[in-house]
Amino acid sequence: MDKILIKNAAAIVCCNEKDDVYQNADMLIQGEKILEIGHGIHCDDAKVIDAADKFVYPGLVNTHHHFFQTFVRNLVTIDYPNMKVVEWLDHIYRIFQKIDSDVIYYSSLTAMADLVKHGCTTAFDHQYCYTVNTKKEPVDRQMEAAAQIGIRYHAGRGTNTLPRTEGSTMPDDMLETTDEFIQDTRRLIDTYHDTGAFSMRQIVIAPCQPVNCYEDTFIRSVELARETGVRLHTHLGEGENENMQQRWGMRTVDWCKRIGFMNENTWFAHCWELTDEEYKILGEYGCGISHCPSPAILGGFPILPMKKLKEYGVLLSLGCDGSATNDGSSLLDSIRTAYMMQCYHSKERGGGVPAYEILKQATINGAKTLGRNDIGSLEAGKAADLFMIDAGALELVGAVHDPRNIIGRVGLTGNVHMTMINGRVVYENGRLVTVDERQLAKEGEKICDKVLRGPCDAFHNLF
């Protein structure tokens, strides 16, 4: 296998258990794997990458997203900050029901490109948009897109099964039966789920949210997860508790606990509505939370108590969330936003969270959340997933003495210098290496115009 020697990096920030930072160091890579990190490494048959003035970090791991929403960004007609979550869902789903298989493909390419350009090497996407037009193809199209971009992809096979007439926010065109969902999830697991070392694709069982599904959908998801060893994910604690109490006489955490949807292989998105006692329950069951700071700010939601969550044993990772509530797919931006939120939070609660700790949430914690021990940190034997930033730029003078905290504290949210995934450079010198992104952008805009901007009333008044 080909070897790559990253030479003379100003800093290599490992995000490992020892929090190692190597100054003026080298990294030797063979195939998809890191062989060695240290000083004065020589290898005559390796391709050399000059990393002078560069800081090297583990590739970021995104643990919650909705790629299909990329084509509904920047809409003044859907004013999320001035709506309650349920009201927003009611409006936005009227657009989502128009989505077809081509929209899934091109919106996924768009989100993945954005992620990679900002240092993300592994992405989980919660794909719950199944319409009459998409049929059962969304995850298949996303796998196709991920292979083109070269990103490591975990697909959350979601669903919505409860009709509006029974209390959900879902249009009929976006509903499936539980049998359909389970059958197709089995197909995807058989087709794509690879548990081998350095695998580039896996499947997660991820019914969308309790308020939009029958109870049986979640119960059978748990059964399938136990049978196959596949992980579980859903939305939790984002404004649904009033509805759940009316329907079931209990809050969502208790409901998930009762049906067995809470264990060490489960993580939840958001969770800003939970109580201290509910956070403790998540910790006791070994569950994780994907913190998505941008939609929390846009919605004016409570700030997660990170220090308490760590104390309670909750595994905290970082997500972008869908572009309908973020308008972008940069996990670097999420690091900065999460850090600033905790700084604000600490004024009332006493003591903030270091920016480096949030970087670890976006790297090693993300890997643990997805059940991966082969990614998330820079160490010998782990995957060569990394990104570099140019620390020699004039605007960073005076800040480069602390490479661990610089991303969050200084706010390095722009495109990175280079991104490598599984030992393969996929982005460098301002361009994606694996695709003709200009051509794909033109094709994607045409699809957006054809499928969404034409027939959809929410777009019609804008264009």
Automatic annotation (TrEMBL):
SUPFAM superfamilies the UniProt entry points to: Composite domain of metallo-dependent hydrolases, Metallo-dependent hydrolases
Any single Pfam family the record assigns to this protein: Amidohydro_1
The entry's keywords: Hydrolase
Domain Amidohydrolase-related: 55-426
Source taxon at top rank: Bacteria
PANTHER family: AMIDOHYDROLASE-RELATED DOMAIN-CONTAINING PROTEIN, AMINOHYDROLASE SSNA-RELATED
Name of this chain's protein: Amidohydrolase
Species, as recorded: Enterocloster hominis
Top-level taxonomy: Bacteria, Bacillati, Bacillota, Clostridia, Lachnospirales
